[in-house]
Every structure is written in C-alpha cells, then in structure tokens.
Write a structure and sequence with these properties.
313 residues; alpha/beta; Nucleotidyltransferase, domain 5; 2 domains; 5-stranded mixed β-sheet; 10 helices; 21% strand; globular; binds zinc ion
C-alpha cells in the first residue's frame, strides 16, 4: 500500500539488494511508502559497478526530497560487521571480500548510512510493521536462492560477537548430506535453497522443463501430486531445523518469508508436523509458525526504520 504523507514529514530511504535486484523506497516513520525504485543489481558486475548502481537508486529517490530525507538504511546479503561498514563476504557476489561499502557509498551520498544484513533488515521490518509486531522473541527465515535467518531475543535483534549471527540456513540437519555453497555438508540450505530444491524436484517432476521454486509451489497449490510431495518434503526439512530453533530459543513465532512461503498449507502443515515430533511439547504449544506479511518490501521497510531509530529528533 502506497500512501501520501504530509509535506514536511521527515523521510528515510530504505534499500534492499540481492544478487538480482535492488529494491528501494522512500518511507515515513509510520511505515508509509511514498515512492519505490527497482532495478537490476548486476551481480556479475564488479564491486565498483554495484556501488554505482546503489548510488543511482539512492539519488533517484532523493531528487526533490533532499531536505526531508534524514538517512539511508541498506540491507545487504552476506556477512557484515557490527558497525555496518564492511561486507566480509557475500554469497551472491563471489569476488567480494572485506568490501568497505559504507565508506564507498559515503563518497557519493552525504547522508548517514546504516548497513545491516538483508535478513536482519527483513526481521526488523516484520517486527515494526508486519507479522512480528509486539513480539519479543522470534526467528525469521528467508527462503530464496539461499536460506537466510535472523534472531530476535528480548525485543532486540541478536547480532553475536562480530555482528554475523543468525546464519540459520547453514545449520546442519544431516551430518553427511550434500555439500552446501558455504562449504558445510547437509545444512538446511543444501536441501531447500532454490538450486537444491529444484534439483530435488526435477527427479520427481517430469515433463516440466523450467522448474523454479515458485513454479513448484504453484503446481503443488494447484494439486499436482509430485509437486505437493516436494513441498511437503521441503516442509519436513524446515521442520527439522525449526525444532532445533524452538528448543534453543523458545520463540513466540517463527516467521517464514520468500516466494515458497506463500504456497499454501502444504509447507506449513509439514513443518508443524515435524516440529511436533521433535521439539519439546511445552515449547511447541507456545510457538506460531507463520508466513511473513510484508512480502518483498520487508527488507527496505526494516532498513528505513533503522534510520529513524538510529537518528534521534
Ligand atoms: Zn551452507
């Protein structure tokens, strides 16, 4: 929903980028989005070229609003330091290593910039405006090319010792399973990350040349038995991981975002069944496992919210 705000209200730019797209928006403090921007990231390009694309996106939103925009929040894929200055490594950008993103953006953008991991920003967005409103302890999972995670403990995003906590997709669910891009073996992502999911599905679903997670989810939703089996299996893998998250964190909610999370009951029923088999009943009774609410705007909304909360006044 795009709404208008009064003319003198302060605004923040929220930007969320991944291997494929840059999504950005101009947001008011209450979550109203005035303008949105979408463009291709060009993950195959150099680091410098991606920086330039981010600058272009920010500038496009700034035009005509310079006096009202107080800062820029950015959700970036990869491992990022606590201070939000450096991208240590990023799965979508194979050649990036210790890139000083904040410093490089700051050369062109004369506004405060706040950078955090993209799924952390998504979780902040869902916490402030979406499925986790009013929740103090919750887990977020983002299912896409990779499987991202974020953890809220006692009302705060849990960052860990160096800022990179929450890599829940790389939790091992089978100690001698397939090898993941991160180097681990048998972790959650190596079963349900987009490429791995499609690989699993292509063994079961014949006669569909272009399988994607979205197509598989839609086929399952429309009653295709093989696709439904693949989604139920995906739910079981997720359920194994969620059972551990429940036992470890005792969350109120587990919020699952990404395209396949919108595919109806099959996935969530399978997660719930598996969790019921594995986690402590007392904990399972008190946790809701639900889809995210803000769709692909969650990240940019969390990023913009971070700006308002980091700048007083
Ligand atoms: Zn992994």
């Amino acid at each position: 929903m795009i709404l208008t705000v009064t003319d003198n209200e302060k605004l923040a730019i929220g930007l969320d980028y991944g291997g494929k797209n840059i999504k950005a928006g101009l947001m008011a403090r209450d979550g109203c989005i005035l303008t949105e921007h979408q463009s291709a990231t060009g993950a195959e390009l150099s680091y410098q070229a991606v920086v330039e694309k981010l600058v272009l996106a920010i500038r496009e939103l700034l035009v005509g609003n310079e006096s009202r925009v107080i800062g820029v929040g950015i959700g970036s894929p990869g491992l990022i330091d606590l201070e939000g200055t450096t991208i240590f490594t990023s799965p979508n950008f194979l050649y990036w290593k210790d890139q000083p993103l904040k410093k490089d953006l700051q050369k062109s953008i004369d506004l405060p910039i706040f950078i955090n991991n993209d799924v952390n920003m998504l979780a902040i967005g869902e916490h402030r405006f979406g499925a986790a409103r009013g929740c103090r302890n919750f887990i977020c999972l983002a299912l896409g090319t990779g499987v991202g995670g974020a953890i809220f403990v006692d009302g705060e995003l849990y960052r860990g010792a160096t800022g990179t906590a929450g890599e829940l997709g790389h939790m091992t669910i089978n100690f001698d399973g397939p090898i993941c891009k991160c180097g681990n073996r048998g972790d959650l992502e190596s079963y349900i990350g987009a490429d791995y999911l499609v690989k699993r599905a292509s063994k079961k679903i014949r006669g569909c040349p272009e399988l994607t997670p979205k197509i598989i989810a839609e086929m399952a939703y429309q009653g295709d038995r093989d696709a439904a089996e693949v989604m139920a299996e995906t739910g079981r893998y997720l359920g194994v991981a969620c059972a551990s998250f429940i036992n470890i964190f005792n969350p109120e909610k587990i919020i699952i975002g990404g395209g396949i999370a919108q595919s109806g009951d099959i996935l969530f029923r399978a997660i719930q069944d598996e969790v019921g088999e594995r986690a402590y009943t007392q904990l399972v009774k008190n946790v809701e496992i639900i889809p995210a609410q803000l769709g692909n705007r969650a990240g940019l909304m969390g990023a913009a919210a971070t700006v308002f909360e980091s700048i007083r006044g």
